[in-house]
């Protein structure tokens, strides 16, 4: 694509900007007041890169912990589907299961990453391991029989030969009695995210001091905020070096608490949205297998038979649309939460000269946020 796009609002720029694209690469970003040539006039609409989903557990009926080498074609379908849903990059998330199955999934993803990437497909940039080092009492829908003690030997066993593709690992820091785990993971370039945890404020603070820099699905599977005991989430919110993932489906976190955490974090500083979508994303509501159990999906929310909330089946951008519709965020803030913020959380570059021109145009009418990929 070669194109001159003018009068676009860009995050990080004050005035309307003109973006010059050559061979699908952004080669120039200039103030529109000083540039007259144009192929497309956005007339003040927002423009961004596509989304980044750092926590998605499966798609189109395939759960990532169940991957086999026969699922390569399915991964292609998933990457195509997510691209159509606005996602540029994502981390397949492997929830708690046996070490054997974790290794099997990591092997398949490692092989897939090395295949040539097709056009108009979301890119797998690594893996998010959500478990198996979680607190039993905050395990949520994670199967108890596969939880492991948080020891250095167990961590090395779970990572196996795939340390290079594990980008995030969610763990309960209070399970580490040695103080070795977080520094070890940090030294290997793995982002440590606290979650499914009973950590006190002091334990969380110690973990952040050791190098942990993220919180998994804030509010869920952790102590609630309390005025005398803020817990790990309170410590995360006030720490400028920590990012919190947030599910904005309206069920995992109510609208008031969404507004509270976003305002406390100055919206773009330290919060990003995730889908936390389960394998039925892209399929209709109904009953679906999930490990050796069943989940029921209603209106995009998945629960176990006992009512335990297990995730969503809503794409990432639905969260951004919800926040605008509910009056919690303005358009700029909502866009940043699904594009810039997750990139910053894992040290990916945001929109800049030499970026691939995978661009999303955003419009908003009567608090209804819509988007389209520019071709």
Estimate the mean pLDDT confidence: 94
CATH class wording of the largest domain: Alpha Beta
Structural class: alpha/beta
Label the overall shape: globular
Rg to the nearest angstrom? 20 Å
Helix content: 25-40%
Number of domains: 2
What do we call the CATH topology of the largest domain? TIM Barrel
Which range does the strand content fall in? Answer: 25-35%
Helix segment count? 10
CATH structural architecture of the largest domain: Alpha-Beta Barrel
Largest sheet, if any?
Answer: 9 strands, parallel
Poorly predicted regions are none
Number of strands: 22
First CA to last CA: what distance? 7 Å
CATH superfamily of the largest domain: Metal-dependent hydrolases
Task: Characterise the protein shown here.
This protein has 375 residues and is of the alpha/beta class. It folds into 2 domains: 3-47 and 359-373, no CATH class; 50-345, TIM Barrel (Alpha-Beta Barrel), CATH 3.20.20.140. Helices cover 25% and strands 27% of the residues. The chain has helices spanning 72-84, 99-113, 152-159, 181-187, 201-210, 231-238, 255-264, 316-325, 331-338, 340-345, and strands spanning 3-8, 17-22, 25-31, 40-41, 46-49, 51-56, 58-59, 62-63, 87-95, 123-124, 127-130, 166-171, 191-194, 214-215, 243-246, 271-273, 286-290, 293-298, 301-303, 309-312, 359-365, 368-373. The strands form 5 sheets. Strands 6, 9, 10, 11, 12, 13, 14, 15 and 16 form a 9-stranded parallel beta sheet that branches. Strand 17 and strand 18 (293-298) form a beta hairpin. The radius of gyration is 20 Å and the shape is globular.
């Amino acid at each position: 694509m070669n194109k001159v796009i003018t009068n676009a609002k860009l995050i990080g720029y004050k005035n309307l900007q003109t973006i010059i694209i050559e061979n699908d690469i952004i080669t120039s970003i200039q103030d529109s007041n000083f540039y007259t040539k144009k192929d497309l006039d956005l007339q003040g609409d927002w423009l961004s890169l596509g989304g980044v989903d750092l926590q998605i557990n499966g798609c189109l009926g395939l759960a990532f912990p169940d991957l086999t080498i026969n699922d390569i074609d399915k991964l292609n379908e998933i990457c195509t589907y997510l691209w159509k849903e606005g996602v540029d990059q994502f981390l397949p998330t492997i929830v708690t299961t046996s070490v054997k199955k974790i290794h099997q999934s990591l092997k398949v993803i490692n092989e897939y990453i090395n295949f040539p990437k097709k056009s108009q497909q979301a890119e797998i940039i690594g893996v998010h391991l959500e478990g198996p080092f979680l607190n039993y009492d905050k395990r949520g829908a994670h199967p108890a029989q596969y939880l492991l003690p948080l020891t250095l030997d167990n961590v090395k066993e779970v990572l196996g030969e795939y340390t290079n593709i594990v980008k995030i690992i969610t763990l309960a820091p209070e399970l580490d009695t040695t103080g070795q785990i977080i520094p070890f993971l940090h030294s290997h370039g793995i982002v440590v995210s606290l979650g499914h945890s009973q950590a006190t404020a002091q334990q969380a603070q110690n973990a952040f001091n050791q190098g942990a820099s993220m919180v998994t699905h804030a509010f869920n599977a952790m102590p609630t905020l309390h005025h005398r005991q803020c817990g790990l989430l309170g410590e995360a919110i006030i720490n400028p070096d920590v990012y919190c993932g947030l599910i904005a489906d309206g069920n995992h976190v109510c609208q008031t608490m969404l507004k509270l955490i976003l305002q406390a974090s100055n919206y773009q500083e330290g919060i990003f949205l995730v889908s936390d979508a389960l394998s039925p994303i892209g399929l209709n509501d109904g009953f679906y297998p999930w490990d050796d159990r069943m989940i029921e999906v209603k209106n995009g929310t998945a629960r176990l038979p006992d009512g335990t909330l297990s995730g969503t089946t809503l794409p990432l951008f639905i969260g951004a649309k919800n926040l605008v519709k509910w009056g919690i965020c303005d358009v700029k803030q909502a866009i940043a939460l699904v594009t810039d913020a997750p990139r910053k959380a894992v040290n990916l570059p945001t929109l800049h000269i030499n970026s691939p021109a995978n661009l999303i145009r955003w419009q908003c009418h009567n608090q209804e946020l819509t988007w389209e990929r520019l071709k």
